[in-house]
Design a protein that fits this description.
The protein is of the alpha/beta class. Helix content is about 30%, strand content about 25%. It is built from ten helices and 18 strands. α3 runs antiparallel to α10 and α8 crosses α9.
Length: about 450
């Protein structure tokens, strides 16, 4: 048992109060009429030198009442060791559970058959069934905001050190952010390399012509340009980038036009694909920018979004959306041109896209939508020697303590105090009644 407020124990010094009261309230002697005091004088003198406690049952109840009230104020908590009935845990990240299961199907099936419990490898470590974890709909969005190392730290505070833990994840370096941690866990970690990052198409194609107009938001255009240059540098694809200072400087016959302005696109300016800022009222929106389909990309923080006009029904193909499923990038086709309406801005004030490793990947999927194309920018693989956390020094940590469940005893103490108070009142009442009867 532990006390949350042990300072209240100093109040136990008050136990002297009921003792002093009982000593103070000694009953006066009774007057008896006798013929001679010669035979009782010696005995009386002897007894007057003794101080005796009277009504000791009542004194005991009052001392117990005071003690229990003090303990109740001290906040007693009973800690009981949690005994895990599971043989062990199998942990899968929710956003890649289906892929991880396919990669390690024989191992996972054998572990589950032996009695291991399936849990999601994310904050809270919720239990899962194999069906729920693997049969996800295409529009299901899983927000991955914590690094695997941060989740490992949470895991250490949740389970016993000896509980076998089998973790199955991809080996994307971006998911292992932060310093390498230490852990006192019975951890078995296996990783896989996603198939879509093992090969990169190098077919020679015609140069992709991209024009960027940012108007007053000049920095927005620089962010897009940096992302496209990173794509060009990594993939070795031929991409011609034109940063136009005015609408008249936009070349004709462009494959892509990034119109990063809320102004309307002038007549006569056309491209095969046009991405433009949607019109509407900017509102604060604490959420995330996510691809519309399931993805292993890390979530990107969203700070502001555009509240669309009433006439805007947001109909079309959704490419990006927030964590609540609201479209952020919507595509519609008009007169042989695909228009992409962006309901946020490429601006650090609006979101974290300019600083995210996911940004070039998201742009790449727009420029090269073919499933055969892929890019691994920002998806560097972690070295297997750096994967597992460092083993914790158990002696320095005073051992990895097992998990405990805390049960507050304050309510029980207050209930016991009430019962003792009722008992004290009853005993006190009967003592007064008895004394009155003896007087008469």
């Amino acid at each position: 048992m532990q006390l949350l407020q042990p300072i209240w124990l100093f109040a136990l010094a008050g136990l002297s109060v009921p003792v002093i009261i009982h000593l103070w309230n000694q009953r006066p002697g009774k007057t008896l009429l006798v013929g001679s005091i010669a035979l009782v004088t010696a005995s009386t003198l002897s007894n007057t030198r003794k101080v005796r406690l009277s009504e000791w049952w009542l004194l005991l109840l009052r001392c117990l009442l005071f003690t229990v009230i003090t303990l109740a104020l001290a906040g007693p908590v009973w800690k009981q060791k949690i005994i895990h009935n599971e043989k062990g845990w199998v942990l899968l990240p929710p956003h890649t559970a289906a892929v991880a299961y396919q990669q390690f199907k024989p191992t996972i099936d054998s572990l589950l058959a032996e009695g291991y419990q399936l849990h999601y490898f994310t904050s809270g470590f919720a239990k899962a069934t194999l069906r729920d974890a693997t049969e996800l709909k295409d529009d299901t969005v899983h927000v991955q905001t914590l690094s695997y190392r941060a989740i490992t730290d949470m895991l250490q505070q949740t389970v016993d050190a000896d509980l076998p833990l089998y973790v199955f994840t991809d080996n994307y370096l971006q998911h292992f952010g932060g310093e390498r941690n230490t852990a006192a866990l019975n951890l078995h970690w296996q990783t896989y390399t996603p198939r879509d990052t093992t090969a990169l198409t190098t077919k020679t194609k015609a140069a992709l012509k991209v024009a960027i107009f940012s108007g007053a938001q000049k920095e927005d255009g620089q962010y897009i340009r940096a992302a496209i240059e990173a794509i060009r540098s990594y993939t070795k694809k031929e991409i011609i980038i034109t940063l136009a200072a005015s609408a008249g400087a936009i070349p004709a016959d462009q494959d892509w036009l990034f119109w990063l302005s809320a102004d309307s696109i002038p007549q006569g300016i056309a491209a095969a694909h046009v991405l433009h800022y949607a019109k509407g009222t900017p509102v604060a929106d604490r959420s995330f920018v996510l691809p519309a389909a399931n993805s292993s990309f890390a979530a990107v923080a969203l700070y502001k979004a555009v509240m669309a006009d009433t006439a805007d029904k947001r109909e079309g193909t959704v490419y990006w959306k927030d964590a609540f499923g609201q479209p952020l990038l919507l595509a519609t086709e008009k007169q042989h041109t695909v228009y992409y309406s962006l309901y946020t801005h490429i601006d650090p004030v609006w979101n974290a896209l300019p600083w995210s490793s996911s940004f070039p990947q998201l742009i790449y999927q727009l420029l090269y939508p073919s499933p055969a194309e892929s890019i691994i920018t920002g998806n560097a693989m972690i070295d297997s020697n750096q994967l597992l956390p460092l083993p914790a020094d158990r002696e320095a940590l005073s051992g990895k303590l097992p998990s405990y469940a805390s049960v507050s005893l304050s309510g029980t103490a207050w209930m016991l105090s009430l019962l003792l108070l009722l008992a004290e009142r009853c005993v006190s009442f009967f003592h007064r009644k008895k004394g009155t009867n003896e007087t008469h």
